[in-house]
Prior knowledge:
alpha/beta, eight-stranded parallel β-barrel, globular, binds 2-phosphoglycolic acid
Amino acid sequence: xxxxxxxxxxxxxxxxxxxxxxxxxxxxxxxxxxxxxxxxxxxxxxxxxxxxxxxxxxxxxxxxxxxxxxxxxxxxxxxxxxxxxxxxxxxxxxxxxxxxxxxxxxxxxxxxxxxxxxxxxxxxxxxxxxxxxxxxxxxxxxxxxxxxxxxxxxxxxxxxxxxxxxxxxxxxxxxxxxxxxxxxxxxxxxxxxxxxxxxxxxxxxxxxxxxxxxxxxxxxxxxxxxxxxxxxxxxxxxxxxxxxxxxxxxxxxxxxxxxxxx
Length: 262
Ligand code: PGA
């Protein structure tokens, strides 16, 4: 099933994998396998070094894949050795940026306030934010998942208006499911997505909630993609490991077609 007004969005997150040449070879191979009948919107979050060459190819394409980044800084510019700004990403053609991924939160100590500033900066620089939220295994086991998600959602989207929210994609990524082969069941993911929609309704109203695209991420593979997409409140998928091979990523993109047949 599908919600009439929301697109299906399939996002590959390549993390720190693939050189620029490898990225381009993947893109060419994927484009040969994709048919023009696919109805999902496909996004690839690639290493910074490959954004320019990939985006310049895709911006010329008839059915473009959106090319984006996996992180950015919240400042417009400044003395931040090793960081990258939204303006820089925009200048090489990035369409979107993943913000608040749990690996950034855990390994680089990013907190909700910092992520909130990044969301605002991305919007200012006209880059679509994909905001990731999700509870850890500990939080899951402690039964505080709902509180954690509420805090992450509201704090990361502090001062965001309903109009701005329309430009944002939300991704529910339970940390215990990322890279573990322990994906949330479609039922559990759907329950959380419904809860997130309820939180969005509370703060921004029912229309915003209806429109918000919410992805599920965490051990999405070829064998669970269609069942996840079949849930009415799961609008798409954020895929790490299985997006690194053309074959599995292509199958997941086409899971949407199977979804319609279910
Ligand atoms: P995974 O990663 O699909 O390898 O679990 C998902 C993610 O990190 O976004």
